[in-house]
């Protein structure tokens, strides 16, 4: 790796996904995703609700798996 590449990445803190339980409505999954991606938490929650309804509940299972695995 060149010196230029090392300097470019040196100032950026490592982003890591975690549950945001301070803004959690249920388990903190949607608020954690919103914080990680820099999105509004309401849009993420709306996306999960719509995805769950349109996907016949499959996205709810994904939510539960993330809740169990994360943090």
Outline type = globular
Biggest beta-sheet profile: none
Q: Beta-strand level of the residues, as a percent range?
A: under 5%
Task: Detail the poorly predicted runs.
Answer: none
Sequence of secondary-structure elements: HHHH
Count of DSSP helices? 4
Please state the CA-atom Rg, rounded to the nearest Å.
Answer: 16 Å
Average pLDDT figure: 85
The quaternary state of the protein chains shown equals: single chain
Number of domains: 1
Estimated structural class: mainly alpha
**Percentage of helical residues?**
55-70%
Distance between the termini: 32 Å
How many β-strand runs?
0
What report would you give on this structure?
The protein is an all-alpha fold. The protein has one domain. Helix content is 61%, strand content 0%. The protein contains four helices and no strands. Helix 3 packs across helix 4. The longest helix is centred in the last third of the chain and has 14 residues. The N and C termini lie far apart (32 Å). The mean pLDDT is 85.
Itemize the secondary structure elements and their pairings.
Layout: H1 3-10, H2 29-37, H3 41-54, H4 58-69
Helix pairs in contact: 2-3, 3-4
List the defining traits of the structure above.
71 residues; mainly alpha; 4 helices
Give the structure's gist in a few sentences.
This protein has 71 residues and is an all-alpha fold. 61% of the residues lie in helices and 0% in strands. The protein has one domain.
